[in-house]
Target: Phosphoribosylaminoimidazole-succinocarboxamide synthase
Amino acid sequence: MRRRRIYEGKGKVLFEGPEPGTLVQYFKDDATAFNNKKTGTITGKGVLNNRISEFIMSRLNDIGVPTHFMRRLNMREQLVREVEILPIEVVVRNVAAGSFAKRFGLDEGGRLPRSIIEYYYKSDALDDPLVTEEHITAMGWAATQDLDEIMQMALRVNDFLQGLFVGCGLSLVDFKLEFGRLWEDEEMRLVLADEISPDSCRLWDVESGERMDKDRFRRDLGGVEEAYQEVARRLGVLPEAGPLDLKGPKTVQ
Model:
């Protein structure tokens, strides 16, 4: 089926959906790090991230956290509501790692006194700079009440995910969220958008401390495909046939 491409990002493509107000989100195997400075392919990543994100978004919908997710369509695609994405990335940190550890001269692996929420302006050209609430409200990217709602949702997602992952023997170090405005009958509400997967979370094995996420790609640690498969296996969503490398849909420019 030929569909109109709406947007292509680093890890996904959005196509026109079957009904108004919907989009088809297609998960690619492309891998990027350091804002596209490092690129590669993780075979089967799209299939696994589709399954993992479906599982997590469905659970969040069940506990009353509104998301754009509607249903999975096939191995690599899911149907989502069309939203107006806010130009900010919301990062929740539980353990010092990555850029946070570097910024404050901390050793990686130290648990933070409490969960910390940071905001970054979505701009590859500017390397996604860290921004404050003052920047966000002054630039009109979101209002103060939006940020209050986002913070409450982010902390709720964090509580849920920490419990979910620790039950699988994984420590949720940090993760990135994106939010969008969903318009319904002239009313706007904020919903969780994008994906939640090993692409957007740092997950460390509780016993060994082994990294089970995209840091394996970022840091050339090897075993990237196996780590993603292991996360899916522990969550109980590893496809029976294995991560088949299906071809993407034909598109119309």
Q: What stands out?
A: The chain is about 30% helix and 35% strand. The domain at 84-205 is CATH 3.30.470.20 (D-amino Acid Aminotransferase; Chain A, domain 1).
